[in-house]
Amino acid sequence: MKVGCIGLGDIAQKAYLPVLGSLPGVELHLQTRTPLTLARVADGLRVPETQRHADLDALLAQGLDAAFVHAPTVVHPDIVERLLAAGVPTYVDKPLAHELADSARLVALAEERNVSLAVGFNRRFAPAYAQCAEHPRELILMQKNRIGLPEEPRAMILDDFIHVVDTLRFLAPGPVDDVTVRARVQDGLLHHVVLQLAGDGFTALGVMNRLSGSAEEILEVSGQDTKRQVLNLAEVIDHKGQPTVRRRGDWVPVARQRGIEQAVLAFLDAVRAGKVLSARDALATHELCERVVRAVREQAA
């Protein structure tokens, strides 16, 4: 199975390539426009010279069975469009694009060509989060905070807060009837944002504070007098009277803990089986992010 990886930045090197580089039956092809990075990463993975490519044309000429896109978001639309037009099942880092129109166009193209398109919402596959979908969820609270990183609203929401948005959508136990957004913007930079989704019998709150003093990710789901907390995707605390704590095993790879490994395997298994994956639900997350962007800008005006 010929699998291409486009873009060899931090997320590719830390999360995806350790998985892809260890899978049996996968002929890994790497592509980046930076020669030194290509040589260093390929050498580390022992990828032959014939499987190293300096441009997308050379990569597409290999007749790929699947591709993973980890290039900067600004070039996602062009790269993904070319892959889909060539009939290559494509997995792309979130977001599909910074602009909703581009994301919608790519999803429509994938459907038109009947080609798989998947977006890297790995938290849906992270064991600790996936298990929360089986827990009572009358109240859902997710925080994803950073230290000293206020940012332009669209970039912050589409590149980072989108994980919070998608996780709330994934865990919401029913249709969302009400959406509320509150934010603080100063000098054009988004300091914090709060998203509330509500439906019949549940409320979901997503919070991101870029000046929180702590880099952390906390998920809590509660209902029927029970509560489950997940700290940094690794530690699970169940509350029902006395709390019980489960921590990530010492030998559990980070890629498995964060759902990266499972997402990769699910995508490649679908490709092998000839199953076409739709990004229509992922587009709904992008649409909600666009709604958050508009609300933030209105409050800052």
Characterise the protein shown here:
The protein is globular and about 60 Å long. With 301 residues, the protein is of the alpha/beta class. The termini are far apart. Helix 4 packs parallel to helix 5, helix 5 runs antiparallel to helix 10 and helix 7 crosses helix 10. The strands form two sheets. The chain has an eight-stranded mixed beta sheet. Strand 5, helix 5 and strand 6 form a beta-alpha-beta unit.
List keywords for this structure.
301 residues; alpha/beta; 38% helix
Please outline the helices and strands.
Blueprint (H helix, E strand, L loop, with lengths): L1 E5 L3 H11 L6 E5 L3 H11 L6 E2 L2 H5 L5 E4 L6 H10 L4 E3 L7 H14 L3 E3 L7 H6 L6 E7 L7 H19 L6 E9 L2 E11 L2 E8 L6 E8 L2 E6 L3 E6 L1 E5 L7 H4 L2 H14 L6 H21 L1
Parallel strand pairs: 1-2, 1-4, 2-3, 4-5, 5-6, 7-10
Antiparallel strand pairs: 7-11, 8-9, 9-10, 11-12, 12-13, 13-14
Q: Give the low-confidence spans.
A: none
Categorize the overall geometry.
globular
Counting DSSP E segments of at least 2 residues, the number of strands comes to 14
Give the topology string: H per helix, E per strand: EHEHEHEHEHEHEHEEEEEEEHHH
Counted by DSSP, the helix tally is 10
Q: Order of strands across the widest beta sheet? A: 8-9-10-7-11-12-13-14
